[in-house]
Design brief:
Blueprint (H helix, E strand, L loop, with lengths): L6 E9 L4 H12 L5 E10 L1 H9 L3 E4 L9 H14 L3 E5 L1 H14 L3 E4 L9 H11 L4 E4 L2 H11 L6 E3 L6 H4 L5 H7 L7 E6 L8 H14 L3 E6 L5 H10 L6 E5 L5 H5 L3 E4 L8 H8 L4 E4 L2 H9 L3 E4 L4 H14 L7 H7 L5 H16 L1
Parallel strand pairs: 1-2, 1-4, 2-3, 4-5, 5-6, 6-7, 8-9, 8-11, 9-10, 11-12, 12-13
Length: about 375
């Protein structure tokens, strides 16, 4: 196909550091039909870890090298200049600050804009909500990763249901279907033979519930001293969580791994995956753990509850309840509950969370916006 006939999509992100919204862009870069679309990426603040992977996969990223704070005139000016240079047929963005600037520029250059809302953002003040509501009139579609986020957005901002499209986030089976062996991964992490290994993945923010997990783990250790907890992720609560582990006298049984791009090896090493979130738009790490056959415990919130309704084998507990979480973990430990489905079986049952479904949904949306 002649390159002039291809549609140009400009993705606007605050950055491309580790996160569900950011990793989706790596999936898009890998799986989008490049005979039909030319993709350009723009980071407001910095390229980040995921951005470097996108570049390795042939992606073209422009970094504006400025603050991603709300309403930054420099962002609007630089993004406008970039858009005039690229001449995109459509702009797509994710997360509030990027969504704001992308829609303003979309109005200026008169192209349709699709935005992504990835969570239930209770932090929004009245003026954020008002701005979102006004700008929704200049937005072709708002993508949410679950029905829970859609319903929250409708209740919070009064946006019409017709404006919102639920498209479940996808995971990348190519990254998960590695040849790594569980015993090798456990050895790499320093896990001893009789250790019962519990793990979680997520940014170290309050809504992820890591402090509740530490309280629960303290209870678990009273009767199961062979338990070890591995926490993968980084964020502003890193130092606080390390300090709390020391205060609880459980730090010897906990390993903070920091951020990890490819978590498939880490997940394979686990005996149990736990996601103790207080709020969750979807929960990609939970999907990845299920896909790899790791037993799972998760909070009964938002997208996690939706996943459990579509996929068997996930134990749900009340959110913000360390006692309930500890009991669920202990039950899994003492009953040696395992999952046995193969990755090929998972591809059949989890098709809605695969790149093919996600990309097909996006391309259908693009076609409707650009016709």
């Amino acid at each position: 196909m002649n390159i002039s006939a291809k549609k140009k999509i400009l993705f606007v992100m605050q950055d491309l550091e580790m996160g569900g919204a950011e990793q989706l862009k790596l999936c898009i870069q890998k799986y989008i039909n490049k005979d039909k679309y030319v993709i350009n990426y723009c980071c407001i603040r910095k390229i980040g870890t995921v951005g470097k992977e996108i570049i390795k996969n042939g992606g073209d990223i422009t970094c504006l090298n400025t603050s991603d704070k709300f309403y930054n005139p420099i962002v609007i000016y630089r993004l406008y200049k970039l858009a005039r240079k690229i001449k995109p047929n459509l702009i797509q963005s994710a997360l509030f600050n990027a969504n704001f600037h992308a829609r303003i520029v979309g109005i200026f250059i008169k192209v349709p804009v699709i935005i992504e809302e990835h969570g239930m953002y209770t932090w929004k003040r009245w003026y954020h909500i008002l701005i979102d509501k006004i700008l929704s009139g200049f937005t072709h579609k708002i993508i949410t990763p679950s029905k829970s986020v859609r319903d929250f957005l409708i209740a919070q901002e009064g946006i019409s249901c017709d404006k919102i499209a639920v498209v479940y986030n996808c995971m990348d089976p190519d990254l998960l279907d590695s040849k790594t062996v569980k015993d090798e991964e456990r050895k790499r992490l320093g896990i001893r033979g009789n250790d019962f290994t519990i793990g979680t993945v997520g940014n170290l923010r309050k809504e992820k519930g890591h402090d509740i997990l530490l309280d629960a783990f303290k209870t678990v250790l009273t009767g199961h001293s062979n338990a070890r907890l591995f926490i993968a992720g980084d964020g502003y609560l890193y130092d606080y969580l390390i300090k709390k582990a020391r205060v609880l006298s459980i730090e010897k049984n906990i390993v903070f791994l920091g951020k990890r791009l490819n978590i498939s090896g880490f997940l394979r090493a686990l005996d149990l995956f736990v996601m103790p979130s207080l709020s969750e738009g979807l929960g990609m790490a939970l999907l990845e753990a299920v896909y790899l056959g790791v037993p799972c415990v998760a909070s009964e919130v938002g997208g996690l509850k939706e996943i459990s309704e579509m996929i068997d084998g996930i134990t749900l507990v009340r959110p913000n309840d360390a006692g309930a979480l500890a009991n669920a973990i202990i039950y899994k430990m003492e009953n040696n509950i395992e999952t046995s489905s193969s990755s090929s079986d998972k591809k059949e049952t989890m098709g809605i969370f695969m790149p093919e479904f996600y990309i097909k949904s996006l391309e259908k949306m693009y076609n409707n916006a650009l016709r």
